[in-house]
Amino acid sequence: MLFKKFFPLIFSYFALIVAAILLDYLLHLFGFPGVGRYLGIAGTLLILLSFLYSLRKRRLIEAGSPRGMLALHEYLAWAGAMMILVHSGIHFQALLPWLAAGAMMLVVASGHIGKFLLRRSREALRNKQQTLAAGGLSEEEIEKQLFWDALTLRLMTQWRMVHIPFVMVFVTLAILHILSIFFFWNWK
């Protein structure tokens, strides 16, 4: 049962890797390997757009529903990560880009894990509430019974305490990578 609930997230994570490999293969097959260089820019822009969810969540923008913005965040970040993986390719020319790509994959993984944990906690709380209500307990008794479960759910929502530092490491490494490109660029 646990695997069945976690499978879509595992599938999404590995589909990201497979999609990047397939796109890279197709670009090489059709003679466009240089396009991967520009996919890094496009992927970065998509990931930056995915931060609209964070702005919406903090009420810095009013557009869109939180749920819709979360879905947009997930899709844009997935597509951006896939493009950046194609951009990074299998080239071992520098350590910094690989560190940035590895940090990005940690961010994607922590996002998948957080999504799974939150969904599972909310479902468990909702099921327990329905069971208690079906047992004839009053709203006050149900609230008392669910106090610790609700507290656990609240703690689960704090998984961002792990996700956000990963994001900051990724952003820092990505910025350093971008700056190093300009620093080491052959301007001739």
Overview of this structure, please?
The chain has seven helices and no strands. The chain has 188 residues and is an all-alpha fold. It has two domains: 1-91, no CATH class; 95-188. Helix 1 packs across helix 4 (66-88), helix 2 (35-50) runs antiparallel to helix 4 (66-88) and helix 5 (95-134) runs antiparallel to helix 6. The termini are far apart.
Silhouette: elongated
Largest sheet: none
Q: Work out the radius of gyration.
A: 21 Å
Overall strand count: 0
Number of domains: 2
Quick tags:
7 helices, 188 residues, mainly alpha
Describe the secondary-structure layout.
Layout (H helix, E strand, L loop, with lengths): L1 H28 L5 H16 L1 H6 L8 H23 L6 H40 L4 H18 L3 H25 L4
